[in-house]
Amino acid sequence: MNKITLKESSRYKLPMGVLSATLLSDNDSLIAACMDGVYRSSLSKREQPRRLYTHDSYVSSVVALDDGVIVSASYDGNACWFDLNAEREIRRVKLHDFWSWDMAVSPDRTKLVSVTGQYLAGGYKYEPQPESEPSIRVVDALSGEILHSLPHVPSVQSVAVSSDNQFVAAGNLMGDIRVYRLQDGELVAKWTTADFTSWGIIKSHCFLGGIFSMQFTPDGKELLLAGMGPMQDPMAGNGKQLWQKWAWQETEPKLVDQTHEGDAGEGLMETLAIHPSGDYFAMGGRLRGGEWNVALFDLATGSRQAVLKTGCRVTQAIFREDGSELILVGSQGQPEKLKDGNFPDFGRVDVFAIG
């Protein structure tokens, strides 16, 4: 395929760092899950960012069921349904005793899946303790009823639903991936990749890293994973910018492709998004060393097609439905001091035209 160009078309700030976002069908209204609540803003800047409601901790995820209802999940373990038109809360459901690390919605908008888990050393090798609560909750998106409570090994940090609404995948700190059938909660595949997990031998002796984002390919046959390669110093953040693609439906799941030699620098990758054409995908996150913190890769060949150095942490990448633009949300630094009674704005939204 021809090389792709990315040209910045818009940039603006939100008061707090953004951990997740969703774009409504008008292709302008952006709902952002931030450290201090859920905000509504617009890419055209026709309305100023304003906070709609809060949780008791960071808001880790937000999804839209339709233009009238959104659902957010938080480190407080709750999911909140919110009516955008009436601007009122519909319900809150306690999903976890610990954090909701990530939440996904099925493409048909009928089911939500949230993942949790706290890493606590379970033995002298610092292997994780078994879960103290179900690591995966499958929820009816309309009623809020918990449909399935599924097991995994904590901490489970990423989740994705296949485009045909049939399967849910979840990945954890140790590089363990489990795929369940969404309808009945049956386990259909499990495997481990050690390439995203570090054992610290400097400063901190513990496991860290893991799989921070995942996406099924459009045909559902393969699964993309993102994170960071192994490090010896847990504080350094200098692991390789890493993606992998797995053929998960094989009798033994098979690694098909991964970040090519020479294509990556250093830094934690936190988000994956597949372009509506199905031809390529975006991966983004933080930059520790190298020339990019966001890049586009050919989905078939894995070749790198375009790069961006945004100067900020990217927590989620979103493509417009027509594929014309790439939207990146995240944060730039984190203010240590109040300024005139408020923290300076450090949430970021960047929009890039795709050529």
Provide key terms for this protein.
355 residues; mainly beta; Methylamine Dehydrogenase, Chain H; 4-stranded antiparallel β-sheet; 30 strands
Compile the SSE list and pairings.
Elements: E1 6-14, E2 18-23, E3 29-34, E4 37-42, E5 50-53, E6 59-64, E7 69-74, E8 78-83, E9 88-94, E10 102-105, E11 111-115, E12 136-140, E13 146-150, E14 156-161, E15 167-172, E16 176-181, E17 187-192, E18 197-199, E19 207-209, E20 211-216, E21 222-228, E22 241-247, E23 254-258, E24 269-274, E25 280-285, E26 294-298, E27 304-308, E28 313-319, E29 325-331, E30 347-354
Antiparallel strand pairs: 1-30, 2-3, 3-4, 4-5, 6-7, 7-8, 8-9, 10-11, 11-12, 12-13, 14-15, 15-16, 16-17, 18-19, 20-21, 21-22, 22-23, 24-25, 25-26, 26-27, 28-29, 29-30
Keywords: Repeat, WD repeat
Protein name: WD domain, G-beta repeat
Organism: Stieleria varia
Description:
- This protein has 355 residues and is mostly beta strands.
- The protein has a single domain, classed as Methylamine Dehydrogenase, Chain H (7 Propeller).
- 0% of the residues lie in helices and 49% in strands.
- The chain has a four-stranded antiparallel sheet with strand order 1-30-29-28, with no helix packed on it.
- It is globular, with a radius of gyration of 19 Å.
- The relative contact order is 0.14.
Per CATH, the class reads: Mainly Beta
Low-confidence segments, given as residue ranges, are: none
Largest sheet: 4 strands, antiparallel
The outline comes out as globular
Mean pLDDT: 96
Order of helices and strands: EEEEEEEEEEEEEEEEEEEEEEEEEEEEEE
Trace the largest sheet across and list its strands.
Answer: 1-30-29-28
